[in-house]
Design a protein that fits this description.
Largest sheet: 9 strands, parallel
Strand order of the largest sheet: 1-2-3-4-5-6-7-8-9
Order of helices and strands: EHEEHEHEHEEHEHEH
Shape: elongated
Length: 221
Amino acid sequence: LSLMMCGVQSPLLYQLLSVWPTIRFLRLGAELAAPLPAQPTQVQLYELILHRTLPPRVMEWLLHSSANSLRIFDCHAAPSTEYDPLVAQFSENLLSLRLFRHTQRSMALIRRCPNLRELVITQLSSFLPLGELPMTLEHLSFRSLSTVTTIPLTPIISAVDKLPRLRLLTCDASTEQNPDFAVLREKCEKKGIFISSGLRPIPMVSVVSIAPDTVCNTHMG
């Protein structure tokens, strides 16, 4: 089930899950603030993708029956500390964790997931270390900002050395222009790790400043 748009106060998600209680894969792109149903959902999710952060009460309702079934968690922003009790219920069972930005909170979340097979960090930090990664990782994925090649690859190279089960490393084409990419590729080849740079880069958005008088003239026609 993919629900990317609905009213903030809409109960549509709750209604759909009551009609289809066997949903296992759920993608949400809308913010939700509608009053919760009286009974928690019985849906047992395998994958949850969040493009917006849900309020804690909504997350608790949504994952009420998924503590033992959730294996893939994809979120734009790592949940804050107020979600820790809920995260503790499913983090040890996660096999795949997919985050957009690498932050202090994402590092804390990764530490709570000791059995990960896959870790995806869309945007690496230019200054934060990767931290300790689960020794169970088989796939590590990251990207760079478009046209920017200054993201240091030293933490990735170090991770390749430390992860005994790593078999696949994926990145975007921009990463190939990084001065350290040759070292990373050589390290992967020696350890029998397949490296792929076929991911699409993160698009950059240009911000154009418009003079106030131009805005006024535009509105006046």
